[in-house]
Design a protein that fits this description.
heterodimer; A: 305 residues; alpha/beta; six-stranded mixed sheet; 12 helices; globular; B: 70 residues; mainly beta; two-stranded antiparallel sheet; 7 strands; 36% strand
Chain lengths: 305, 70
């Protein structure tokens, strides 16, 4: 297989683009896709400080790497979920990455903020672990960004993540979620920072290949709680579809973003207010994070009593 | 030849002298769900792997909350 650009030996085939690339030309393609995402959605400028949420996995470290290479003013944020060895190892990957590049990294422990680490939250709430974990991450990313003066948080969500989320929302016709799924969510309230996904144009295979070719030491092991997660089942379905029809995932996501999402956005106009407890933005009197933290503290307190 | 699989990490022996595509088919792996790694480079599906080669099939799929859902 030959590189589409230079005709040299290819290292990666991208069937949805009907193309293959050698390593240098693939890296250039990858950076161009990130540039296009940032430009098209006016995600951030070179003058703004960007908080990059990093997990130690391929996507978020690839994102941080490409933003550093592109000359953006970035700070990493690692949220320590307290998930046994997985968290210890993923934190070490983030710290090593930051140290090697001289980039600033902030570490926040979920247990300090919620009252218990993710494994305890899982037991207390009896909800799927990814539910309380995702809620805590979204809340803390916004809170940390506000407290430290970052106007924008960038996450490593890729095309496959976004397509799987879209499939999940469609399967349950979650109109509110469909209205809010976008590569860039504007700050619709003074206490909400912009949230952007500069990798949304790139597949999981592409972010993994970028991380490998850039010699990024990322954590290959999965979060132990992700096993059996619905998002993985949706990704597997979409991969089978992609195998039979290259470009299916791309068309599903981009068709939604370009043609369907505006219709959902019009019908779903939630009123935002500040949580009476913590002051963060929510749609009800007390935000979901404070309710979760209450539940955790009650259960942990009862356990100790 | 030896194939290293991940999550959990394990090794299997398969016949070499074939294209990557055929090895993936034998192992029932969808090509775009793994990086095919030999040494410090990636292989495309049409490349032939020798009997003495070691390749790693590293999954690219990750799941869980991500924290990006609305």
């Amino acid at each position: 297989m030959r590189c589409r650009r230079c005709g040299g030996a290819a290292v990666l085939e991208l069937r949805r683009h009907n193309a293959a690339f050698c390593a240098p030309d693939f890296l250039a393609f990858f950076r161009n896709q990130v540039r296009e995402a940032i430009r098209r959605h006016r995600m951030f400028t070179h003058d703004e400080p960007v908080l990059v949420a990093v997990s130690g996995g391929k996507d978020s470290l690839a994102l941080w790497d490409v933003l550093i290479e592109e000359g953006y003013r970035t700070t990493g944020l690692y949220l320590d979920l307290g998930i046994f060895d997985y968290s210890v190892e993923s934190r070490a990957r983030c710290e090593a990455f930051a140290a090697a590049r001289g980039a600033p990294l902030m570490v926040v422990r979920v247990a300090d903020e919620v009252g218990a680490p993710v494994p305890v939250i899982k037991e207390v709430t009896r909800r799927p672990p990814c539910s309380g974990c995702g809620l805590s991450k979204r809340y803390l990313m916004n809170k940390v960004a506000l407290e430290h003066g970052f106007p924008v948080v960038a996450t490593g969500h890729n095309l496959d993540d976004e397509a799987a989320t879209l499939l999940g929302s469609v399967l349950h016709w979650q109109i509110d979620a469909l209205a809010r799924q976008a590569p860039a969510l504007p700050a619709t309230h003074p206490k909400l920072v912009r949230r952007v996904k500069p990798l949304y144009r790139l597949s999981e295979l592409e972010t993994a290949a970028y991380a490998f070719l850039r010699r990024i030491d990322y954590i290959v092991e999965e979060c132990p709680f992700a096993r059996g997660a619905t998002s993985l089942a949706h990704k597997e379905l979409l991969s089978r579809l992609e195998e039979a029809s290259p470009g299916a995932k791309h068309n599903f996501l981009f068709g939604f973003l370009e043609r369907a999402r505006p219709a959902f956005e019009r019908v779903e106009a939630a009123t935002l207010q500040e949580c009476t407890r913590c002051g963060q933005v929510t749609t009800g009197p007390v935000c979901a994070f404070c309710r979760l933290a209450d539940q955790v503290k009650r259960a942990v307190g009862a356990g100790r009593a | 030849m030896k194939v290293v699989l991940r999550n959990p990490r394990r090794e299997v022996e398969v016949a070499g002298g074939r294209r990557v595509r055929d090895i993936l088919r034998e192992l029932n792996i969808v090509p775009e769900t793994v990086l095919v790694i030999r040494g410090d480079t990636l292989l495309t599906a049409d490349q032939v792997v020798g009997d003495d080669d070691v390749i790693e099939l590293r999954p690219v799929m990750s799941g869980g909350s991500g924290g990006g859902a609305p």
